[in-house]
Amino acid sequence: MVQATALPRNEAGIETTMGILKQQFGERFQTGKSIREQHGHTTTWIENQPPDAVVFPHTSQEVADIVKVCATHKVPIIAFGVGTSLEGHVNAPAGGISVDMSQMNQILAVYPEDLNCVVQPGVTREQLNTHLRDMGLFFPIDPGANATIGGMTATRASGTNAVRYGTMKDNVIALEAVMADGRIIKTAQRAKKSSAGYDLTRLLVGSEGTLAMITGITLRLQGIPEAMASARCSFPTVDAACQAVMATIQYGVPVARMELLDTASVAAVNAYSKLDLPESPLLLLEFHGSEASVAEQSATFGEIAEEVGGTGFEWTTNAEERTRLWKARHDYYWATMQISPGKAGIATDVCVPISRLAECVARNNDMIEELGLVGLVVGHVGDGNFHTTILVDMADKDEVSRAEEFVGRLNDLAISMDGTCTGEHGIGQGKRPYLKRELGAATDVMASIKAALDPDGIFNPGKILST
Amino acid sequence: MVQATALPRNEAGIETTMGILKQQFGERFQTGKSIREQHGHTTTWIENQPPDAVVFPHTSQEVADIVKVCATHKVPIIAFGVGTSLEGHVNAPAGGISVDMSQMNQILAVYPEDLNCVVQPGVTREQLNTHLRDMGLFFPIDPGANATIGGMTATRASGTNAVRYGTMKDNVIALEAVMADGRIIKTAQRAKKSSAGYDLTRLLVGSEGTLAMITGITLRLQGIPEAMASARCSFPTVDAACQAVMATIQYGVPVARMELLDTASVAAVNAYSKLDLPESPLLLLEFHGSEASVAEQSATFGEIAEEVGGTGFEWTTNAEERTRLWKARHDYYWATMQISPGKAGIATDVCVPISRLAECVARNNDMIEELGLVGLVVGHVGDGNFHTTILVDMADKDEVSRAEEFVGRLNDLAISMDGTCTGEHGIGQGKRPYLKRELGAATDVMASIKAALDPDGIFNPGKILST
C-alpha cells in the first residue's frame, strides 16, 4: 500500500455529530468496521482511510441536514457513489462522515423531446441506460465501471466515447447541490444553453466533493443511433496509428470510439482470449449514425489507415461480429491481470495534445523498460488520453518504489508536453503534487474558491488541493 | 435611453492611476471624449457610461501592469473587445479604465494536427477564420457580429451553429488570465480534456470581465467540411416547425445551423429583399459533412418536415444557391430596421427547453400584441433560444416603458418554463434583476466567488451581480 497522510481529527465534533446523525437516521447510520472500510478507498494502491460512520440519505433535504450538523461541529463530510474512483477520492484522512448516495437512486424525470433527464446522484450509468432504452435514448458517457452519475459528475469522468460525445462537463446541464452552510442551490435551468452568470455547473463538475454535495443532476441525452459499426485495424507503429487518428478527426469523421492497444496489450489479449491478432499496435473503432453514414465513415477510415500502413482492417454492423472485433478491448482488464497473477494493476491517466501522443507513448515504454517494470498501454487515442497499467507486487517494496517513480516521471512528461496528469480520473489524494506542477499559480486561485465556499474545510478534506 | 445606475467614484484613485498609466503607455493612453464614449456602451438602449480613460496594451504583462496599478488604487478596470455586447457590459458606472484589447490581436500558434490554436483576446472571429482557411480549418462559433475572441469568451457567446458545435464554453480549451492581484495564471494545459482540479477555464468563460482579465485563449478548431448544404422549409405554425426540429435532433441528424423566422419576420424580409416566401414560419438549415452525408441529412430532414406539414422544402450544396436560400436570414437585421425607420431595435435573448419553445413564442407574440408593440422573432431553434426584436421609438417614453415591460415579462416567462433570461448575450447591467429570479441562492455563491477573487471589486463593477 502507498501511504496516505492522516490529517488532524476533531474527536469531540465527530462524536457529537455521530450522536445527532444516529438519532435522525437510525438504521441508515452505520459504524461497522467493514462498511467503513468499504467506504474508504479500496480500488487503488492508496492506503484505506475509513470514515467514522456511513449515512444513507434519501432526499436532498436529508443531505442538507447532514451538512448542517457537520458544519456546526466542523466535521468532514465525504460523498460516496459506488467507490470506483482511482485516486483516493473517498478516503477519510481526518475521519468524518461518508454520505453514501446509493439510496438516492431515483430517475426523477426524462424529457425525450428535450433530450435530457434529471436524476439523483446515486443512479448508476447502467441503471440509467436500461431505463432509457425503450425511449430510444441513451446517456453516452462510459468510463468503464458502472459508476454513479454523481461520482462521474464529481470526477469529470469521460471514457471511450468522449471523442464524440465529450466528457461529463459537456453532458451536465444543471446541478442541484448542498453548499457548506446547508443551503440547497440549483446551478442552472434546464435550457440547453445559458449565459446567466458564472458557470457554477462546471465549477462543481470535477470538484470531487470538495465544494458542495451534488444532490441532483440534469443530463443531456442522445437518441440511439440507427446503426453502429465496429472496426479494427493493426498498425506497424503507435506513430502510424496516431497519424491515422489525427487524419480521421481532421477529416471530420464523427468517430464514436477510437481505442489504441499497444503491442504489449495486444500480446496480453492474444494470450488471454486466444486471439491471433498481429502483435503490433491495434486501433478499435466504433461509428454511430445512419446505415449509410456508418458505412461511409468506416470506408473513409479504412482508406486513411491504409495510407499510413494499416493492415487487417475489418468493419461490421452485425452485433455478434462487433463483439468479436472488440473482444480485445472487452477482455483487456482480465488479460492484463493474467500476466502476473497476484500483482496489482496500477493505472495512470495522462492526456497530451494528440500530436505528442506517439512520442509520449514511446517515452512511456522507454521508462517502463529502464525501471524494469511490466506495463501495458490502452488509450482513448482520439483525445490524446492513455492509461498505462503497471503490474506491481505490493509486497515488493522496491517494485512499488520503482512504480511510484514511473508514475511521477510519466506525469511530469505529460505536463512537459502541454498535457495533463489526469485526463479523466481526477486529482484525489494521489495526484495533488502534480496539480501544482501542472497549473502553478492557478492552484492558489482554486484554493481561494475552496476557502470562500467551504471556509471550514468540511467537504472532502485532503483532496485536490494540498491543504 | 434606459438609465443605468451610476456607482460611487473613487476620484483620487482614478486621478493617480491615470497619471501612472499615461506615463507608461504614452500615446496608447487616451482620454478624449469621443473615444471614451465609444468605449462605453453604444449598441443598446442602455445609457452610455464612459470610462475615464482607454488604454491599449500589447502584451499580457502590460495588462498585468495595468491591473496592478488599478488594484493598488482601487480603480475599476473594464475589458473592451470591439463593443458588440448587448447588455451594457462595457459601461463604466463607477468610471475607471477601459482596457481595449484591439492591439493584442496576434494569432500566437495554430496546431493543425491537434485542431487547436492560441490567440490573443483582440483577435476577431473573421480574422481568425481568414487565417485558418488555407489550413483547411475553421473556428465554428458565429454570434453574427465580428466580435473578438476575448469578448466572445467573456460573454459565453454562441450563435447560429451552436446546435452542432456548442457555445464558447465547449470550444475554449484553456485561458491565460490576469487575476486581481496582477498575477498571470493559465487555467489548463493544451490537452483536449483534463480532470485536473477546478474548471477555472469555464469559470472565466462567461464571467464578463468581473473575475479576471483574459489575455490568451486556446481554442478548439474544426476541419472545414467536405460539403455544406443549405435548406429551407415553410411550416403552417411555429409549433409544426418546432416538431420538425425536435424530431430531427432526436433522429441524430447533426444539423449545423437551424434558424426559425416567425411570420412577422418572413413578411419583413419579403418586403425588404423582394422575396416571395409564404408568409408563415420558416426554417433555414445548414448541414456539414461529406457530399453523401449532407445529401442524406437534407433528405432525412425533408421527410421529417413533410410529416408535420412542411412545404416548399429546398436544399442545395451549390454556393450561389445556398446564398439565395439563406437570403432571408442574411438580410434579417436590415429588414427589421426597415419596418419603422428611425426606431431602435431592442433584442431579447431567452432560451427554453425545446419542448416549450412553441408555447413560449406564442405567448411572446400575445404579449407583443397586448402591449401594442411591433416585434419579430428569429431563433436558434435547435437550442430553444430565440431573439425578439422590439422596434422602439426611444423618444416615446410610453413605448419605451411598454417595451421594458415586455422584456421583463418575456424573461419571467422563460424562467417559469425552466429556461433562462439569456441564452447567449450575458447578464451585463441589463439583466441583473432576472439573474436572481432565475437562480436564487446560487447568485450568493457567485457573489462569494467574486469577493474571493476580486475583493476590492475592481473588475467591471456593476455587472452580473447587483453589488
Describe the structure.
The structure is a homodimer of 467-residue chains. With 467 residues, chain A is an alpha+beta fold. Chain A folds into four domains: 11-102, Uridine Diphospho-n-acetylenolpyruvylglucosamine Reductase, domain 2; 103-223, Uridine Diphospho-n-acetylenolpyruvylglucosamine Reductase, domain 3; 227-331, 2-Layer Sandwich (Alpha-Beta Plaits); 340-426, Alpha-Beta Plaits, CATH 3.30.70.2740. In chain A, 38% of the residues lie in helices and 20% in strands. Chain A is built from 18 helices and 19 strands. Chain A has helices spanning 11-25, 33-39, 60-72, 125-133, 149-154, 162-165, 168-171, 200-204, 238-250, 263-273, 291-307, 319-325, 327-330, 332-339, 357-370, 397-416, 432-439, 442-453, and strands at residues 29-30, 53-55, 77-80, 97-100, 107-111, 116-119, 137-138, 172-178, 184-186, 213-220, 222-223, 227-234, 255-261, 282-289, 311-316, 344-347, 350-351, 374-380, 385-392. In chain A, the strands form four sheets. In chain A, strands 12, 13, 14, 15, 16, 17, 18 and 19 form an eight-stranded antiparallel β-sheet that branches. In chain A, strands 5-6-10-8-9 form a five-stranded antiparallel β-sheet. In chain A, strands 1-2-4-3 form a four-stranded mixed β-sheet, with helices on both faces. In chain A, helix 9 runs antiparallel to helix 15, helix 10 crosses helix 14 and helix 15 runs antiparallel to helix 16 (397-416). The two termini of chain A are 23 Å apart. At the A-B interface, strand 9, helix 8, strand 11, helix 9 and helix 11 of A face strand 9, helix 8, strand 11, helix 9 and helix 11 of B.
